[in-house]
User: Fold this.
Amino acid sequence: MSKAKTPRALSDKEAKAQARNLRTSGQKLNLVAQSIRGLKVDKALAQLQFSPKRIAIDVRKCLQSAIANAENNHGLDIDALVVAQAYVGKGLVMKRMNTRARGRGARIEKPFSHITIVVRETEGAA
Assistant:
């Protein structure tokens, strides 16, 4: 016999998407995530479209995935979706060496990070 099914972590009015191993530091990624928290999804997409940050392209893909999950998997109304949560996690760090003068070496760290976006359907549909 199989194990009992794990209950869904999110409510029925929520959907989420994750983008993992994005090649940027968590601090830089969090600046972009902060700019979309609490916004309606159409305004959040516009914000990411015109953001000067390089990583905003990948965050926009993740947000579009969360919207598609909400529509296709959970049957939510796209026009009533709001970015409920956007949080950043730390990924692996690649360590590299850079040669310096007098036979020394300097360490270069190339961090990766993850982003999770949760969208929620609001009651007052616009």
Notes: The chain has a mean pLDDT of 95.
